[in-house]
Amino acid sequence: MITKLNVTSIMVLDKNEALDFYVNKLGLEKGQDVKQGSYRWLTVRVPGDPGTEISLEEPGPPVHDEATAAQLRELISKGAIGGLVFLSDDVRALYETLKARGVTDFTQEPTTRFYGTDMGVRDPFGNAIRILQQGKVAHAAKA
Amino acid sequence: MSREVEDLNRRLLRARDAMDRAYAEPLDVPAVAAVAHLSRAHFIRSFRAAFGETPHRYLQRRRVERSMFLLRETDRNVTDICFDVGFGSSGTFSRTFREIVGETPSDYRLGNEPMLPPTCFQMAAMRPVVAAGVARRSSTFGIAAAAAAP
């Protein structure tokens, strides 16, 4: 029986830039940062939740040949590859915090739906990030 | 070379996000092109090359998807929904809806009930594919531009 999601990965164009965004802007914490030869195992995680790591991966050798890596980079920058969904205890406050930290690429401002309040933002490379505050709220459906 | 493509894609994606966010407002091509820091003509050409359809069509499908959502999930009347999602006239809305979905807004409402996936997934996955046999049309935002005109 599978018991937990341990590692997921997201493709980024630059690990240092990704680390800055995910930690200093979004507010995750740095997980592991280990250099193995030319490979850097770099993860971030939700603060206080060490059981699930998000590995930041760059397209390129030895995993991808250069042509494949170029295709992946193009797809990432079109927003066509990956994404992450996080939970928050206060999406609207987080939205203000992210704005204050200079985040501008919101795909959706905080909006209340039948399943809670969520917002959308892109990382610097084009990956979609959703942040949801769960909880049913009585309201009229709104586009 | 590759970096330039990635940078262009990223700016086009930002412009596409702007349409997803502000579909209900009277958008015009130059305003959306400005988000990508491109001229109108270059933007339309590049957007189509990256995403396979013109910005105009992308916006139409976003607006129609949101109208389908409101038709399913609310009791608002069709004319109100038309303006809610950014169309400038109910005639244009009905024609565009029929062209893309293949049936009228009222018929769609009769045949469909509320859905469960979260809105972000609905917005991504439920945006209608243009019904078969429809020719690609102009790449201007004529509808919104007309609505914005005095």
Brief summary:
Chain A has 3 helices and 8 strands.
Structure overview:
The complex is a heterodimer of chains A (143) and B (150). Chain A is an alpha/beta fold and 143 residues long. Chain A has a single domain (7-134), classed as 2,3-Dihydroxybiphenyl 1,2-Dioxygenase, domain 1. Chain A is built from three helices and eight strands, in the order βαβββαβαβββ. Chain A has helices at 15-25, 66-77, 91-100, and strands spanning 7-11, 29-36, 39-45, 53-57, 83-87, 106-113, 116-122, 128-134. In chain A, the strands form two sheets. In chain A, strands 1-4-3-2 form a four-stranded mixed beta sheet, with helices on one face. A four-stranded mixed beta sheet of chain A has the order 5-8-7-6. In chain A, β7 and β8 form a beta hairpin. Chain A is globular, with a radius of gyration of 16 Å. The model of chain A has no long low-confidence stretch (mean pLDDT 93). Chain B has 150 residues and is mostly helical. Helices cover 66% and strands 0% of the residues of chain B. The radius of gyration of chain B is 16 Å and the shape is elongated. Chain B folds into two domains: 1-52; 56-135, Homeodomain-like (Arc Repressor Mutant, subunit A). In chain B, α1 (2-22) crosses α2 (29-35), α2 crosses α3 and α4 (55-73) crosses α7 (105-111). The chains are: A alpha/beta (143), B mainly alpha (150). The A-B interface holds A 13, 70, 73-74, 76-79, 105-109, 111, 113, 115, 118, 120, 122, 125-126, 130, 132, 140-141, 143 and B 2, 5-7, 9-10, 12-14, 16-17, 20-21, 24, 50-51, 66-67, 69-70, 73-74, 84-85, 118-120.
